[in-house]
Fold Mitochondrial inner membrane protein Mpv17.
Amino acid sequence: MKIQPLKINRFRKTLLFRQALETGALMGTGDMVAQTLIERKKLERNYDPSRTLMFLLLGSFFVGPMLSAWYKCLYKLGHRDKDKSQTVILLQKVLLDQLVFAPSSLVVVLSILSLMQGGNLKSAKEEIKEKYVDILVKNWQVWPAIQMFNFYLVPLKYQVLLVQSLGLLWNTYLSWKIHN
């Protein structure tokens, strides 16, 4: 009987690890695409591998685990309220995601990237002041429809992967926007 909880716990840890690695790889790839295709940097000359590494590390150690935990919270929210319709629960999830999670996580991501690039809290604050509103508005133009699909049709264990796979384009935009 005690073997079953052990297997479930191992699966959860493996899933979180996999989601963290997938997110890091896709965020790093997004930066690489931004540098080579959008900014037209040549791999052998102007390409900045440390910038890609920063995105990879940010995705692996922060964004991936953060998304995994967030989606678990939203999933529990949907299973806690048995009296509400699926439509109401879906709208609640999307609204929480876009009005609570997106704005706050964007502040943290911009701050961490600024600090990883050698900045201090003052430069992080300037970075946020300069880029936050544009990125958040673009987020609201892109993500609500994706999240409706994600929360309604995609099983919890694949939600981070779906968002980060579609997020490859978002990460490309985010990297370009932050660095230009």
